[in-house]
């Protein structure tokens, strides 16, 4: 559940979601659920010319299982906090 | 688990809350909006969503497949479609105010798009066999 809470903290920030089919979508993180399904608002596709059908999509739901990377804003990662949380999780508490 | 109907809009998945945003929590499910569903095999389906569940299984009404080859495109009507959730990559809300496709793209008939598809497939097959033959050269 660690990354679920982590992504919940990122709601409202601008992220780029890179999918397993190489499609990369940038947008504002609207919400995330337990499967790490992601909802983006004000989306734009990074390589617009290659994916013309995505031109008129403004909001979208992305299935968690097809996500390869989520590119975060540089200040979106509190490494210390994440370290602590990871250790706690590893200890089983 | 039954199919989601107008009464159980509040499922715990974000797909459910996504649909709340599309329609508002109390509006009828069937006053639906046009959606684009991207599948894992690269197909692009468009249609109005009738129903869905927590796996992203979805039912599309008056669905059509948008085939794009280069600058040509075609919408092939399919009718009612039930999509198994594991094949879904993305569900996007189509903004009808925005241009659907770039202006340089032209709409062609089904026969024409099939022809273009076949030509593209043959070209990529040829590229594959050429590459295979040249493998001993150790490209890359």
Automatic annotation (TrEMBL), chain A:
Biological process (GO), any one: mRNA splicing, via spliceosome
UniProt key word Nucleus: yes
A GO MF label: RNA binding
Domain named Sm: residues: 2-76
One GO cellular component, as annotated: Lsm1-7-Pat1 complex
PANTHER family to which the protein is assigned, alphabetical: SNRNP CORE PROTEIN FAMILY MEMBER, U6 SNRNA-ASSOCIATED SM-LIKE PROTEIN LSM2
Family per record: Belongs to the snRNP Sm proteins family.
Job description of the protein: Component of LSM protein complexes, which are involved in RNA processing.
The protein's name in its UniProt record: Sm-like protein LSM2
Lineage of the organism: Eukaryota, Viridiplantae, Streptophyta, Embryophyta, Tracheophyta
Automatic annotation (TrEMBL), chain B:
Protein name: Uncharacterized protein
Organism this protein belongs to: Pistacia integerrima
């Amino acid at each position: 559940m660690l990354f679920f809470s982590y992504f919940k903290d990122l709601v409202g920030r601008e992220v780029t979601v890179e999918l397993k089919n190489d499609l990369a979508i940038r947008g504002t993180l609207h919400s995330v659920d337990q499967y790490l399904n992601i909802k983006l608002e004000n989306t734009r596709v990074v390589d617009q010319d290659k994916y013309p059908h995505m031109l008129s999509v403004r909001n979208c739901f992305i299935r968690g299982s097809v996500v390869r990377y989520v590119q975060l804003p540089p200040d979106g990662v509190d490494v210390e906090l994440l370290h602590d949380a990871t250790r706690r999780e590893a200890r089983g508490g | 688990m039954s199919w989601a109907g107008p009464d159980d809009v509040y499922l715990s998945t974000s797909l459910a809350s996504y649909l709340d945003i599309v329609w508002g929590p109390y509006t009828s499910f069937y006053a639906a909006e046009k959606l684009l569903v991207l599948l894992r095999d690269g197909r692009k389906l468009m249609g109005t969503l009738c129903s869905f569940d927590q796996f992203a299984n979805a039912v599309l009404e008056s669905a059509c497949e948008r085939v794009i080859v280069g600058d040509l495109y075609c919408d092939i009507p399919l009718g009612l479609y039930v999509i198994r959730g594991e094949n879904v990559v993305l569900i996007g809300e189509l903004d009808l105010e925005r241009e659907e496709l770039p202006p340089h793209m032209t709409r062609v008939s089904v026969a024409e798009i099939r022809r273009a598809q076949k030509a593209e497939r043959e070209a990529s097959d040829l590229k594959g066999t050429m590459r295979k033959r040249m493998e001993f050269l150790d490209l890359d």
